[in-house]
Amino acid sequence: GGCFNPAVAIGIDVASYQIGFGWCIFYTLCEFVGSALAVGAFMVVRPQDFGKEKGLSAELASEFLGTFLLVLTVGLNVLGKSLAGAYSIAASLMCMIYTLGDVSGAHFNPAVTVAILASGRCGDGLTPAKAGSFIGAQLAEAAVAEATYSVIHKGGSFPLGQGASFGWGEVAVAEIVFTFVLCYMVLSVAVSTTTEASIMFGLAIGACVTVGGNAIGAISGGSLNPAVSFGIVLAHLPAGGSVVIPFLAHSLFEFVSAVAAAGVFKVTHAVDEEGLLKDAGSKA
Q1: 207 contacts 126 by C-beta, under 8 angstroms
Q2: In percent, how much of the chain has pLDDT > 90?
């Protein structure tokens, strides 16, 4: 029922007492457990708020948590046959970007991590080693998220691949184009010093998922994210699904698009580097 609130659960249970009462107790316990987990996660990703130093572990936990909720939302929407899946998935991404953006940068997507690294705009903030650790956390989360949504739906899963009447060529074009849109948007509103959108960045990035999900969902599934692709193929293994071809194909398309987005960004946003050079010259 998606109560998320003991008051709501109790109110519904009381209002429908004539057909049974008592589920509100179970719902309330679950909601308090959820709140306790939220407190624990907050303490892990923001140790500086509790007198401790923030290290790489906090950033990895941030990437793990954000990607977990994203992949879980994807799985639950598909298995629940939601008619508004793209909007729900985009909303989950937007919420976690605003929640964890100042912790790890809120990549939640190996393709985004590669695009930011390839853009060369983060300097020491995102080294190849750190990018690799981010991608590792994102893929590890995919395994946890897929197991979670599969358990919730009693072993349910779904395949990753082309839609009916579409081939790998159409899938390649769809995933490359819309992963490009996503990565280019991230670079433009969250990395660029010229076009940075300090308030609306989360909404802008989330909107890319809405656009891609609605436009190509029936063609390629609209993954746009190797972690999402990885979680989907892992969950479908018990049903006889394949890991190698769907995951590697989608990931190849998405990583190619990420590098392309970084290349275009470096051309269209060269003004960022010119500004940095001017600032350095004036200080000298």
Answers
A1: no
A2: 85
- Locus of tokens 């609209």: 222
User: Residue 280's pLDDT is what?
Assistant: 47
User: Which pLDDT score, from 0 to 100, does residue 278 have?
Assistant: 53
pLDDT digits (tens, 9 = 90+) for 178-236: 999 999 999 999 999 999 998 999 999 999 999 999 999 999 999 999 999 999 999 99
First to last CA, the chain: 62
- Assign 3-class secondary structure to the chain: CCCCCHHHHHHHHHHCHHHCCCHHHHHHHHHHHHHHHHHHHHHHHCHHHHCCCCCHHHHHHHHHHHHHHHHHHHHHHHHCCCCCHHHHHHHHHHHHHHHHHHHHCCCCCHHHHHHHHHHCCCHHHCCHHHHHHHHHHHHHHHHHHHHHHHHHCCCCCCCCCCCCCCCHHHHHHHHHHHHHHHHHHHHHHHHCCCCCCCCCHHHHHHHHHHHHHHHHHHHHCCCCCHHHHHHHHHHHHHHCCCCHHHHHHHHHHHHHHHHHHHHHHHHHCHHHHHHHHHHHHHHC
**Contact (Cβ atoms closer than 8 angstroms) between residue 143 and residue 231:** yes
pLDDT tens for each residue of 74-133: 999 999 999 999 999 999 999 999 999 999 999 999 999 999 999 998 877 899 999 999
